[in-house]
């Protein structure tokens, strides 16, 4: 309750900080966010760390079968993802990231930059420091953050229904204990296993729209009790019982 109340207060403060200048809504100087604050409107042709931070937040809106590059370059794919994000939240959908878009992002994230419905603790039940996997601890943690924002988009597309994470990052030791593949994406931090409701097939089917190049589910060996989503360099989807 306190967390939600604090988030509501933050949203109201941010809305109050928006001022009308020459008939155009722009962010006021009081606008700030505990995680990351954007200080300029972003559109095609822009580049930089602020673009990369935006791409992380809209990574779950690349369109069916696509994956948005997190490269700090605001090209057509980023504009299209921003447009879908704007449409998903009832904003003016023009592919330009301005105060309305940023305010919506601020309302969706916690101070550690994770989306409000997911946490680093959920994505790592293996150890406390993200070490021991196939990539550096920093890379594994960063990969998990992108996966969380994709899951936030998936959750919203499913009517803001809760999604249960049963497994995320694994070190080699944790992966061996779980009987995971030696090439498991869990070792990279972006692999996530989902259980509960919505149904596993619903999760797997809808995940195709939200930036996951790897989707495994019912009908694929050892995946009848969960849906697995991850990123990888090429697409591999297999959930035969779900028509995938």
TrEMBL record:
The keyword NADP does not apply. Gene3D superfamilies: 3.30.1380.10, PGBD-like superfamily/PGBD. Pfam families: Peptidase_M15_3 (PF08291), PG_binding_1 (PF01471). Residues 47-104 form the Peptidoglycan binding-like domain. Residues 117-230 form the Peptidase M15A C-terminal domain. Keywords: Carboxypeptidase, Hydrolase, Protease. InterPro entries: Peptidase_M15A_C (IPR013230), Peptidoglycan-bd-like (IPR002477), PGBD-like_sf (IPR036365), PGBDSf (IPR036366), Zn_M74/Hedgehog-like (IPR009045). GO terms for molecular function: carboxypeptidase activity. This is D-Ala-D-Ala carboxypeptidase family metallohydrolase. It comes from Streptomyces millisiae.
